[in-house]
Amino acid sequence: MKRRLLLSVLLIAALLTGCAAKDGSGPAPTSAPTAEPAPTASPGPSATPTPTPEPVSPEVQAMRDKNEQVWREMHNRDWMEGRLVIPSVGIDVALFNWGPDPVGDYSTDKIVEIVRQEVVDREDSALLYYDDRVGNIIADHSNQDFSVLSNVQVGDTAYILSGDRMVTLECGFVSDGVNTGYGITDKDGGWNHPNTDYVLYTCLEDWTHIQIVGFETKNEEFFQMAWIDVGDNNSNSGVVSTMSLPADSGSGSSGAASATPAPTATPSPTPAPTAQPTAEPQAAPAPAVQQPVYVEQYGYDIYANTGEDYGYYPSGDGYLY
Length: 321
Known about the structure:
Layout: H1 2-23, H2 58-74, E1 80-86, E2 91-96, H3 108-121, E3 126-131, E4 135-139, E5 157-161, E6 165-179, E7 184-186, E8 198-203, E9 209-222, E10 228-229, E11 239-240, E12 294-295, E13 299-300
Parallel strand pairs: 2-3, 4-8
Antiparallel strand pairs: 1-2, 1-5, 3-4, 5-6, 6-7, 6-9, 8-9, 10-11, 12-13
């Protein structure tokens, strides 16, 4: 009887266990834990890209190379300010703002007139001077370096090279004008080009009727240049050397604005130089050795790179005239 009762209890327990497993009421099996994803590394700050230098055209690079040659030439030619180059028409002429004083007893105005005309008359020599109303003026004869000035067109590029400086210009206008003998004007007698930085002119059929070409500055570069050792025989050795700035003024002139003799009295209007054709070309002056000139009100006209930062010492207001 006890055995039968025990078997009945075991049978009922087995049936209850099977039902629990079949209807899912029993405890659910334990699942394996899910692995946490590895943290993603934050990207660091991106490196600043190296700026790409602006491309230089072959023409500009050629002018930079020529600029070094001009620097040497300026130390062999008194009063030379640099060179004007207009590649589109083949103009390449040295610029001067002064020359040797004439022999004789002349007034200040007459000296200016004679010297300026002599500069224009020489071969490979254009006059560069400043006019209060017009600005920077460059004049030469129509049978010399400005024989093709009338071929310049609006938009053409020109360069003024002076060794430690290169000015890039763009032609803004081309027109006829008038040389009054005391200055240049438009053909109507006025001047309507206030934004023009440089004005080139030469004579047409006579000295009063002129061709005028205006240029505006597009770019201006400055360069560190060392003094050129020209040797003792007035020959340019082309050796670049450094030197100390002189304590007092030397002989010669670099051709800066300060080289023009200051009048002792207020001068009357000086006639503009005549740029008519010249029958007999004048021989170029013999080269002369120059030294840096100290100008009290402006500093050194020509400076040397001696390893110390002396900066740029402009002539006058920094423009060539």
